[in-house]
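User: Okay, second chain of the day. Same drill as before: sequence in, structure tokens out.
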Amino acid sequence: MSLVDTAPPAPAPTAGVTRYPGATGRLVRSELALVLGRRRNLVLLVGLALVPLLLGVVLFLAQDTGLAGQGPPFVARVTGNGLFLVVASLFLCLPFLLPLTIGIASGDAVAGEASAGTLRYLLTVPVARGRLLAVKALGALTFAAAAVLAIAVVGLVAGAVLFGVGDLTLLSGTTVPLADGVLRVAGVVVYVGLSMTGLVAVGLFFSTLTEVPVGAMAATVVVAIVSSVLDQLPQLAAIHPALLTHHWFDFAEMLRVVPSADLLAQGLAVQAGWVVVFGALAWARFTTADVSS
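Assistant: Same drill. Structure tokens below.
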């Protein structure tokens, strides 16, 4: 018997796509560099960062005229404590500017690649489609976090420079130490960031439906606007708790003496529900669709 006859059989080739160690990690790094380095996205982040700066300057110039104490909630408190500039800026950006920015980024995640004709080449990377979609979702979520942080960081710095920071007076009139106030404002920032996850999932789903990025972006923003409109109709009170935008402004709980954990948890649960539903729809679409561009 020859050595050839006694040698063990060669392992059968693995079915499907060949796996290469580190391929997913390289794809993640490439996606984050693309999302955070794209000129359009940088312009959007700069635009959001200018909101607290402009608001702070306007309130600083108006503080001796008696007009600084007027206006929407939180804005009137800015001149008394710079920490409120963070909250006021998020309050002003949350209805439209922040959803618009995040809708643009998430709606472009997959549709932008298809429009540019690079999606089918991207699918040649030795990473499964589901994992590629997860990488795209991570990029969109990272941009959403960067958008919220751009407002918060600039608001904190501008507020500290223009108005100073100190012990924080809560909505009830109770004053808490500066350290506690900073933690509460940080909680506001975190809650607003988590409240954007549902919108990211919606944008990612629409992005898998079309090769026209503008269409996916517009559809994502329309969902947020329609949700806000429906939330104002008392006749639809039964569905209000499940609407995407219904709990967005519950961040105010962080500025009460004892925040309602149940209310905050309910708001995060709604976002988780939207993420699960639209994330599953995006996965089902992306993993089964024929990609021709």
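The chain has one domain: 23-288.

User: Thanks, on to the next one.
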